[in-house]
């Protein structure tokens, strides 16, 4: 009986020790969890502070850029677009001013080009449509002439023929890409293009008496400039 009693007491001591260990472990885990919960606001605050600092830096960089742009006088359009501006060589040109000559090798003809398309200008030569670009520029340059004077032989030109415009010290060579006949109210003759184009237009039919109902159009692409 004495042996059984000692064994029972030893077993109780082991159970008690195990209970104490488990209790200590539970307290430790609970304390660690509470510590994490207490530190969570500090962690969130640190993240928020980092975001605020980054936002402040972004605002400062924007202010530096704006100040630099103002100091350098950079136009707003140049920041968002890389498209080259059109030439300003003729920005002060006036209506009726001489701007060059139109040479038509296939017809062995040459005519003066004046800025404007009024009757007065067309009586003196070929008129440059004022709302179109100047010869040689990246867009549609439109020239008009009377069918019974400068452009009386325009219908003899074919695709591949050359048109040469001489301006001061510049020489622009265009190659005819096609011809067409349109209604006199057709505005496609003067629409912008994405490359350098020369458009010649005159009244049609050529032998019509009175106000002609149509227009004869010659289109050419820039192939060389000197």
UniProtKB/TrEMBL annotation:
CDD domains reported for this sequence: Sortase_D_1 (cd05828)
Keyword Plastid: no
Entry annotated with the keyword Signal: no
Keywords: Hydrolase
Active-site feature positions: 146 (proton donor/acceptor), 203 (acyl-thioester intermediate)
A Pfam family annotated for this UniProt entry: Sortase
GO MF term (any one): hydrolase activity
Domain of life where this protein originates: Bacteria
Gene3D superfamilies, A to Z: Sortase (2.40.260.10)
Entries under InterPro entries matching the protein: Sortase, Sortase_D, Sortase_D_1, Sortase_dom-sf
Protein name: Sortase A
Annotated source species: Acidaminobacter hydrogenoformans DSM 2784
């Amino acid at each position: 009986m004495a042996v059984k009693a000692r064994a029972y007491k030893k077993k109780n001591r082991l159970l008690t020790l195990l209970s104490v260990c488990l209790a200590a472990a539970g307290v430790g885990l609970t304390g660690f969890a509470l510590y994490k919960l207490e530190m969570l606001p500090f962690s969130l605050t640190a993240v928020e502070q980092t975001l605020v600092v980054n936002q402040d830096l972004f605002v400062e960089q924007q202010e530096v850029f704006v100040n630099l742009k103002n100091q350098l006088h950079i136009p707003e359009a140049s920041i968002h677009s890389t498209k080259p501006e059109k030439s300003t060589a003729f920005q002060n040109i006036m209506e009726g001013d001489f701007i060059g000559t139109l040479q038509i090798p296939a017809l062995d003809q040459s005519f003066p080009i004046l800025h404007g398309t009024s009757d007065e200008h067309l009586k003196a030569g070929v008129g440059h449509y004022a709302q179109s670009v100047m010869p040689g520029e990246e867009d549609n340059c439109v020239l008009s002439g009377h069918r019974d004077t400068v452009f009386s032989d325009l219908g003899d030109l074919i695709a591949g023929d050359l048109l040469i415009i001489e301006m001061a010290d510049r020489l622009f060579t265009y190659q005819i890409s096609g011809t067409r006949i349109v209604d006199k109210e057709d505005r496609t003759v003067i629409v912008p293009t994405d490359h350098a184009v020369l458009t010649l237009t005159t009244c049609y039919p050529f032998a019509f008496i009175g106000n002609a109902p149509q227009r004869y159009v010659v289109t050419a692409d820039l192939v060389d400039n000197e």
